[in-house]
């Protein structure tokens, strides 16, 4: 009688599809809050997902674009008020 499920071949591996989705979500959130941190993380996750051959390249490219947009928004606000932080 077996009480636990057998280990699959994906045990311990990172999922490039999950990375693509995570980069999209973090890039989208980065437009609203913490763009100085979430932008680079979204870019890195998208790059790794694309490098590992995700089956969702459109989401990875969206995450990459949103990560770059996060940094551009940060640069625009920094230019406008000469600080790193911004508020409404």
Radius of gyration: 17 Å
Q: Termini separation (Å)?
A: 61 Å
Q: What would you call the structural class?
A: mainly alpha
Q: Please trace the helix and strand order, writing H or E for each element.
A: HHH
pLDDT averaged residue by residue: 83
Largest sheet: none
Helix content: 55-70%
Low-confidence stretches: none
Shape: elongated
The count of β-strands is 0
Our estimate of the beta-strand percent is under 5%
Question: DSSP helix count?
Answer: 3
Question: Descriptors for this entry?
Answer:
mainly alpha, 88 residues, 3 helices, 65% helix
Commentary on this structure:
The protein starts with 15 loop residues before the first helix and ends in a 7-residue tail after the last helix. It contains three helices and no strands. The longest helix is centred in the C-terminal third of the chain and has 25 residues, at 57-81. Helix 1 packs antiparallel against helix 2, helix 1 packs parallel to helix 3 and helix 2 runs antiparallel to helix 3. The model has no long low-confidence stretch (mean pLDDT 83). The protein is mostly helical and 88 residues long. The chain has helices at 16-30, 35-51, 57-81.
């Amino acid at each position: 009688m077996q009480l636990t499920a057998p280990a699959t071949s994906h045990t311990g591996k990172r999922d490039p599809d999950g990375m693509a989705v995570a980069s999209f979500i973090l890039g989208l959130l980065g437009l609203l809050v913490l763009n100085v941190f979430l932008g680079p993380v979204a870019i890195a996750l998208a790059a790794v997902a694309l490098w590992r051959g995700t089956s969702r390249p459109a989401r990875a490219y969206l995450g990459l674009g949103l990560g770059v947009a996060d940094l551009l928004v940060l640069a625009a606000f920094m230019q406008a008020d000469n600080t790193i932080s911004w508020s409404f």
